[in-house]
C-alpha cells in the first residue's frame, strides 16, 4: 500500500491535430498540478486537502473549463459547479450556479464542513461563500475572449459543446448534429482529482464550468454524488464527459459498487463502466483504490490526464497510448 494520485482536465473529442498552443499549456498545467499533489501527499497531507488543493489550482488555470476558464451559458454568463467527498466518512459537499466565487471547490468543501447539508445552489451558495469570506470577483472576471469566441462558435453551429471543440463550417452542421445523436450536444469539459494516502484514506473533488452554450440553470454530473464524483472505503472516482450520460449511468458509484459487490479490481471495474455502461465517445474518469491502484480509462478521442504513485510510476497524457 502506498499513496497515489490522479487528475484530469476533461475528456471529449480532442483531435490529435489540436495545435501545440492549445495542448502544451494544458500538459504543463497537469504536470504542475500533479507535482503539487505529490508534494502534498509526501508531506503527509490528508487526501481531502490534497484534492481540494489540486482542483483549486486547476480552477485558476484559464486553459481548463473550471474557475477562471469556465465556459459561457447561452446568455453569455458563467455558472460553475463543484463537488468534494471523503471516502472514509463519506462526508461530501456540492455546489451549483456559482457566478462570482473564484474557487467553487472550496465552497463545496465548506458546505461539507460547515453545514448539515450536502448541496447548495445559485444565490444560496453565493451568499454562503460570501458569509465565510471566500474570494469573490465581478462575474466579468470569468468572461475571457476565448470563451466569448467559443460561445459565438457554438451559437453559429446551433449546438452545445465542449470548450475545445474544433470550429465547423456552415455546411458541416448537419453532420455534427447527426454525430451527436441529433441533439447538438457535445461532451463536457471538467477538472478533477482523486488521491489516497499510505493509510488508505481516499478523497475526490471535481469542478466545472459546464457546457458551452448550455441553458441557464443546467446542472451536470459534477456535483451529483455518485455520478461525476464519489468516494468510499474502496475507491475515489472523478468522472468527465457528457454529463447527462454520466448521470444516467451513475458512473462514479458504479465503479465503487462493482468493487464492493462483485469483487472486481479498480481497473476492471472502471474499464467495465467506461466501456459498457455509457455510450462510446461520452465519458472518462480517474480513480484510485485504497491499496494505491490508479486507473484513467476513457472512451472518447482523448482525455487530459495525469497520475503518480509512490512506487515511482508517472503518466501525463491526452490521447490513448499504444498499450491502451
From TrEMBL:
The keyword Chloroplast does not apply. Keywords: Autocatalytic cleavage, Hydrolase, Protease. It comes from the Eukaryota. The record marks 189-190 as: Cleavage. Substrate binds at residues 218-221, 240-243. GO terms for biological process: proteolysis. SUPFAM superfamilies: N-terminal nucleophile aminohydrolases (Ntn hydrolases). Pfam families: Asparaginase_2. It is an enzyme of class 3 (hydrolase). It catalyses: Cleavage of a beta-linked Asp residue from the N-terminus of a polypeptide. The active site is at residue 190. Its EC number is 3.4.19.5. GO terms for molecular function: asparaginase activity; beta-aspartyl-peptidase activity. Heterotetramer of two alpha and two beta chains arranged as a dimer of alpha/beta heterodimers. This is beta-aspartyl-peptidase. It comes from Linum trigynum.
Amino acid at each position: 500500500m502506498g499513496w497515489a494520485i490522479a487528475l484530469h482536465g476533461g475528456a471529449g473529442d480532442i483531435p490529435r491535430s489540436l495545435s501545440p498552443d492549445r495542448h502544451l499549456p494544458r500538459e504543463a498545467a497537469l504536470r504542475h498540478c500533479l507535482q503539487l499533489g505529490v508534494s502534498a501527499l509526501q508531506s503527509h497531507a490528508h487526501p481531502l486537502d490534497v484534492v481540494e488543493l489540486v482542483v483549486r489550482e486547476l480552477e485558476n488555470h484559464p486553459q481548463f473549463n473550471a474557475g477562471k476558464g469556465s465556459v459561457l451559458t447561452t446568455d453569455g454568463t458563467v455558472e460553475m459547479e463543484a463537488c468534494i467527498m471523503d471516502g472514509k466518512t463519506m462526508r461530501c459537499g456540492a455546489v451549483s450556479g456559482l457566478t462570482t466565487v473564484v474557487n467553487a471547490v472550496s465552497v463545496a468543501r465548506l458546505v461539507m464542513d460547515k453545514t448539515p447539508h450536502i448541496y447548495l445552489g445559485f444565490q444560496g451558495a453565493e451568499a454562503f461563500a460570501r458569509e465565510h469570506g471566500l474570494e469573490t470577483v465581478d462575474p466579468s472576471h470569468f468572461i475571457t475572449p476565448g470563451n466569448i469566441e467559443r460561445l459565438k462558435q457554438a451559437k453559429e453551429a446551433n449546438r452545445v459543446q465542449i470548450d475545445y471543440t474544433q470550429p465547423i463550417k456552415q455546411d458541416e452542421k448537419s453532420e455534427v448534429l447527426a454525430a451527436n445523436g441529433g441533439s447538438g450536444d457535445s461532451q463536457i469539459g471538467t477538472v478533477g482529482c482523486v488521491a489516497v494516502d499510505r493509510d488508505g484514506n481516499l478523497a475526490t473533488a471535481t469542478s466545472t464550468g459546464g457546457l458551452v452554450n448550455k441553458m441557464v440553470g443546467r446542472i451536470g454530473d459534477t456535483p451529483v454524488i455518485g455520478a461525476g464524483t464519489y468516494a468510499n472505503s474502496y475507491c475515489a472516482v472523478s468522472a468527465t464527459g457528457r454529463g447527462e450520460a454520466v448521470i444516467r449511468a451513475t458512473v462514479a458509484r458504479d465503479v465503487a459498487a462493482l468493487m464492493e459487490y462483485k469483487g472486481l479490481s479498480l481497473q476492471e471495474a472502471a474499464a467495465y463502466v467506461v466501456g459498457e455502461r455509457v455510450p462510446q465517445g461520452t465519458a472518462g474518469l480517474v480513480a484510485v483504490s485504497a491499496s494505491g491502484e490508479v486507473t484513467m480509462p476513457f472512451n472518447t478521442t482523448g482525455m487530459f490526464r495525469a497520475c503518480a504513485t509512490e512506487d515511482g510510476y508517472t503518466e501525463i497524457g491526452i490521447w490513448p497510448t499504444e498499450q491502451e
